[in-house]
Amino acid sequence: MCDAENQSKPWRLANNLYGNGTPALSLLHLEIEGFYNFIQSTATEFYLRAEAVRCIEDMLVSIWPGASVEVFGSFRTGLNLPLSDIDLVVENRKSYWYTPPLYELESELVARGVADPQTVNVVDTAAVPVVKFTERVSQIKFDISFNVGSGVKAAELIKDLIQEFPDLPKLVMVLKQFLAMHGLNDVYRSGGISSYGITLMCIGFLQHQSQSNKKYNNNNRLGILLLKFLEYYGRKFDFNKYAISVTGKGGCETKEQLRSTMGNYNWQSFLSIQDPITPSNDIGRSSYAALGVMKMFEAAFQKLSRLVDLEPTRITGPILDSIVEVPQQVINYRDWVHYNFRHLVSSGSSSGPPPSPPSPEKILKRRRSSQYNDSKPCTTSTSEGESTDGNANAPNMLEC
């Protein structure tokens, strides 16, 4: 039903569905479904990420024997875009790090050839200090923090809430791509809204919607929810008075009430999002570009509203691409991954879909047969068994 040839607009439906009398909201619903199906990780992309995580974890354990490594964030919840970072947290079971070994990790990443020096960035002034880098072989970006267990708990909570709100992943993925297009998906670089933040905003919105007990038609539900989300935060939500909070059922709480109950002076920023794992933590406090984001939500609402108000016979093309597109950079990276790493997925049978991959946390819990070599970075091997630096045409495994 979707146009597989047009990769920058994977949600474009078959031409005969436009202008044939199908209501615009139904078309938008189908386009969101198409976008979600396209943007999710393929089996090859998932396994490449899983192998990269395994290599990084083995390296970390070789540096700090006895340390535990956990995946959190969007890769754990399944809400990652193709270029999303992978979040890892390291905890030392033998002794607590009073000062996170950020610069030691930076040195090891470069010395072992895991990351090129220009891609490594130590952020030691953030509320949660982190080491950011790009893994050399897979070109996947990583964020590594130390002794912060709340991220894993948050990811598990999100997974539970996905069960409660099945439409959450589709809404989140569209909105994450919307923010990424505008460079507003990174709190550190642009003052935008983090993946965790936009996910909590979506949950708060869906909680608010559930209070009305209104049931939407399955043929247009996603289109309505996207429009209502953009309207809710772009026009209706009083950010001066309320913070987004998913700990209750209404999706928000007054900032005054939070200041009173938390006993601190947070909740002063324009966008305040209460962390359900650490209730005194305001996820939105560093999103200094949040006002601009909300104005963009309003503009997107206006664009979509004009299109869905058209007579069905006047709709000649896709609706979602008025606010979302997939940049060529993303398409090129996915093509590169599939060309170079498709053999990561077993080709045992040529018929039928590939088996469902295990979750990241299951991969990390499995028994390993070897540790990370102190002097050798993650490399790739060709189907002929020759080692390469990751630039060969047909590597089939990441090796540590």
TrEMBL record:
Entry GO CC: nucleolus; TRAMP complex
InterPro entries assigned to the protein according to its UniProt record, in alphabetical order: MTPAP-like_central, NT_sf, PAP_assoc, Trf4-like
Poly(A) RNA polymerase mitochondrial-like central palm domain mapped to chain residues: 29-159
Keyword field: Magnesium, Metal-binding, Transferase
Any single Pfam family the record assigns to this protein: MTPAP-like_central
Gene3D superfamilies to which the protein is assigned, alphabetical: 1.10.1410.10, Beta Polymerase, domain 2 (3.30.460.10)
GO molecular function: metal ion binding; mRNA binding; poly(A) RNA polymerase activity
One record GO biological process: polyadenylation-dependent ncRNA catabolic process
Co-factor requirement: Mn(2+)
Entry superkingdom: Eukaryota
Family: Belongs to the DNA polymerase type-B-like family.
Protein name: polynucleotide adenylyltransferase
